[in-house]
Each structure stands twice: as structure tokens, then as C-alpha cells.
């Protein structure tokens, strides 16, 4: 079949790979001008580990393993460590594979067969379906017809908006926003990695891997209405959110964010939809069921979804109606579990009040025998 995938994130790339190796002609359109490889390390967990084995990628993924979660600790305004988190709050099991988002993205892209290609700086402008196919007009001006369209274009999916309606019908804001920036290489200090500082409703942290340091700026906020494509607006929102605070490394993180052309900013939100397919269009990954970074499972869901979709299409002999139904039945239990796990993460990482920060630290410090190991929690995956 001739299949269009919108978005070259983990969901789009894994779907393109799983479809491509089964002989489909796959075109991936990605709005950015290159693969978006920034982001903190992510986790491959549970059945997603088996999925990467089926894709032939498990050894390559294991080779890129990092242990950032296990080095994370909370500090006070002077940078003194005041609490560490036991490992069981960081990982589901010892089998979890934590690796840089950049490595997983590159591994998937490198594994694409020749019949799966990526077109950068391209996006779907409009699509019209008839019984036999989908006519797509691209923002670059061209158009083409496809048998199926897969929306893998993330939390603010264009495909979802075009086919299923406005984002507001499906988005559940969890009350947090996150900014992420790469710190300048000349500033790198290994000892910074894994430190998190809180004041009420805010968390500033430094994570990283190898010789790369990433600044994290998390804060509590009501839902904000802003232009997702306007980077300057996003930087201003973060600067305003941390205004008046120059303790710990906050000024350094804000300066780095301001100078970063790849600055990542988004709401911590979930997408809840009664169905992920309509006619010849189907959603995979965050586009259909974002679980929010606090779940630690968005990447695993993207991996299972891509494989289930491709397998079901093969099993149904190309009957997309049957395949989409089966894909959804297999994927939904994973999504429901992931989406149900988020509550505690927000309270752990961004306590709302001074009392809650103190209570969190006391709880962590008083867990006998656990905090001494120097283990920590991953702020996101
Ligand atoms: C730059 C970046 C950094 C991230 N960092 C983290 C992190 O540190 N921690 C964490 O937990 N999660 C992070 N995430 C989210 C995480 O990658 C996802 O939750 C998970 O991997 C599922 O991925 P996805 O492919 O469904 O969505 P996404 O990772 O959001 O990928 C969607 C892709 O679609 C592209 N796209 C969007 N709109 C269009 C359009 N109209 N046309 C074409 N392409 C489009 C985007 O540029 C992106 O490449 C990040 C996402 C991005 C894009």
C-alpha cells in the first residue's frame, strides 16, 4: 500500500519502519528541517522492549543505555543535596532501558528501508477521503493520493485536527508546563547532572548524558493559550514563570533557553479519544493518546503502536477497517495504564507549596536504607 505518515518522531519513525519492512511504500513528512533529536533521555519499558527486539533494534538500543534516572537528587537554593529518590520510584523494573532520545531517533531513522523515505520541511495542509483513497495537499503546494494516512504528529497533531476536530475536544491539561534547553558545551560540569531545585510550583533542574547537559524548567500553570509555533512566545512564557528567582542555577538555565534555537516547550497534557481511526486515517503515538511526560511511557506507547498497526494490517490482508480496529484493541490497554499513572509524578517533581516540598524531602530522607544508594528519579521519559 502507499502510506503517508505525518511526523518523524518516535511514533512516525517506528511506524514507517514497521510498515516499510512489510513492503509498504511509506512517505514520512516532517515539519521540521531535520530530525528533532533534542530532549532528555527516555525509557523503553515493558512490552516495548520486546517490540524493539522484533524490530531487530534491541542490541543497538541496549548499547546506548544511560543511567540518568539513577543519579538524580533534589538540592536546596545553594545546590546542597537534600534528598534522593529510591530506584523503585524511578523505574518499573531493572529491564527498563533508558537512552538518549537522540539515539533512539537516530537508530530508528537509520533502520528505515529504502521504500520508506522522509521529506523534511513538509506538512499536510488538507486531506480529502473517498472510498478508495485519501487525497492530500501539502503545505509546500504539491499534492498526492495515498491508500492510508497515519497521523504521528504529536500532542498538537495536525491530522487529528483535520479529521477528528479541535484539540480542545481531546486535551486534558495536567497543570504543568515544561521547557527544555541544551546548556552550552563550554559550561559543562559533570557534577551538575541530575540536580533538581524546587520552589513552590516550580522545578529547575539539570539532566544530561555523556558530555551533554540539559536544563529543565517545569512549572505549574493553568492552561495557556499561545501559538505553538512561536518560539519567542514560548521563551517569554518560561522567563515570566521564573521571574524574580535568581537562586541556584535558574538564571543560567533561562539564559541558555533564551539563546537556544531548538528550545522545547509544551504543556504537560494528555490526549483522550474514544477512537483513533476514521476511514483511511489512523493516529499513532502522542497524536492519538499522549500520556504526558510524567507517565514515563510515551516512547514505549509509540513503539508498540507502530508495530501493532503494521502487524494488524498484514494480518488483515490490507483490510484497513479490520486492521485499525484490531490495532486499537491491542494498544488501548497499554494507553489506559500509562495515562492512569501520572498523578504522583507531578507532586514528586513539582510540589505546589513550601510545606509539600518539605514533606516530600522528609519522606525521601526518612526512607531507611533507600536514599543512601544515591539513586534518583527521571523527571521525564
Ligand atoms: C523535540 C522534542 C523533545 C522532546 N523531549 C521530551 C523529553 O525530554 N521527555 C519526554 O518525556 N518527552 C519528550 N518529547 C515527547 C516524546 O518524544 C513523545 O511523548 C514520545 O516519544 C511519543 O512521540 P511521538 O512521535 O508520538 O510525538 P513527538 O515526539 O511529539 O513527535 C511528533 C513529530 O511530528 C512532527 N510534527 C508536528 N506537527 C507536524 C505537522 N503538522 N506536519 C509534520 N510533522 C509534524 C514534530 O516535529 C515531531 O517530529 C519530546 C518531543 C519532541 C518533539
From TrEMBL:
UniProt protein name: FAD-dependent monooxygenase
Domain of life: Bacteria
GO molecular function ontology, one term from the record: monooxygenase activity
Species name: Amycolatopsis ultiminotia
Family annotation (Pfam families): FAD_binding_3
Keywords: Monooxygenase, Oxidoreductase
Entries under SUPFAM superfamilies matching the protein: FAD/NAD(P)-binding domain
Residues of the FAD-binding domain: 3-163
Amino acid at each position: 500500500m502507499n502510506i503517508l505518515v505525518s511526523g518523524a518522531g518516535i511514533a512516525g519513525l517506528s511506524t514507517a519502519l514497521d510498515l516499510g519492512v512489510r513492503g509498504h511504500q511509506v512517505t514520512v513528512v516532517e515539519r521540521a528541517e531535520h530530525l528533532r533529536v533534542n530532549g532528555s533521555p527516555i525509557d523503553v519499558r515493558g512490552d516495548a522492549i520486546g517490540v524493539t527486539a522484533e524490530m531487530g533494534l534491541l542490541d543497538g538500543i541496549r548499547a546506548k543505555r544511560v543511567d540518568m534516572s539513577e543519579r538524580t537528587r533534589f538540592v536546596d537554593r545553594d545546590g546542597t543535596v537534600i534528598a534522593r529518590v529510591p530506584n523503585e520510584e524511578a523505574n518499573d523494573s531493572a529491564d527498563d532501558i533508558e537512552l538518549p532520545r537522540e539515539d533512539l531517533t537516530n537508530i530508528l531513522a537509520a533502520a528505515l528501508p529504502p521504500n520508506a523515505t522522509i521529506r523534511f520541511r513538509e506538512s499536510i495542509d488538507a486531506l480529502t477521503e473517498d472510498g478508495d483513497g485519501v487525497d492530500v495537499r501539502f503545505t509546500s503546494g504539491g499534492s498526492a493520493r495515498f491508500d492510508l494516512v497515519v497521523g504521528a504528529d504529536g500532542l498538537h497533531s495536525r491530522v487529528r485536527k483535520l479529521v477528528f476536530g479541535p484539540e480542545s475536544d481531546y486535551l486534558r491539561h495536567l497543570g504543568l508546563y515544561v521547557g527544555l534547553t541544551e546548556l552550552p558545551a563550554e559550561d559543562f560540569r559533570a557534577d551538575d547532572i541530575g540536580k533538581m531545585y524546587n520552589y513552590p510550583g516550580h522545578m529547575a533542574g539539570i539532566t544530561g548524558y555523556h558530555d551533554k547537559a540539559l536544563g529543565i524548567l517545569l512549572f505549574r500553570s493553568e492552561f495557556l493559550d499561545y501559538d505553538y509555533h512561536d518560539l519567542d512566545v514560548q521563551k517569554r512564557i518560561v522567563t515570566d514563570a521564573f521571574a524574580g528567582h535568581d537562586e541556584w542555577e535558574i538564571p543560567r538555565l533561562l539564559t541558555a533557553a533564551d539563546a537556544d534555537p531548538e528550545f522545547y516547550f509544551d504543556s504537560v497534557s494528555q490526549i483522550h479519544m474514544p477512537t483513533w481511526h476514521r476511514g483511511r486515517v489512523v493516529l499513532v503515538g502522542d497524536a492519538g493518546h499522549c500520556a504526558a511526560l510524567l507517565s514515563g511511557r510515551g516512547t514505549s506507547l509509540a513503539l508498540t503502536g507502530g508495530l501493532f498497526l503494521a502487524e494488524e494490517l498484514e494480518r488483515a490482508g490490507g483490510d484497513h477497517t479490520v486492521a485499525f480496529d484490531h490495532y486499537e484493541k491491542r494498544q488501548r490497554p497499554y494507553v489506559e495504564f500509562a495515562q492512569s499513572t501520572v498523578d504522583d509524578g507531578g507532586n514528586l517533581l513539582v510540589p505546589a507549596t513550601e510545606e509539600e516540598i518539605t514533606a516530600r524531602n522528609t519522606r525521601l530522607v526518612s526512607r531507611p536504607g533507600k536514599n543512601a544508594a544515591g539513586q534518583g528519579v527521571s523527571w521525564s521519559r
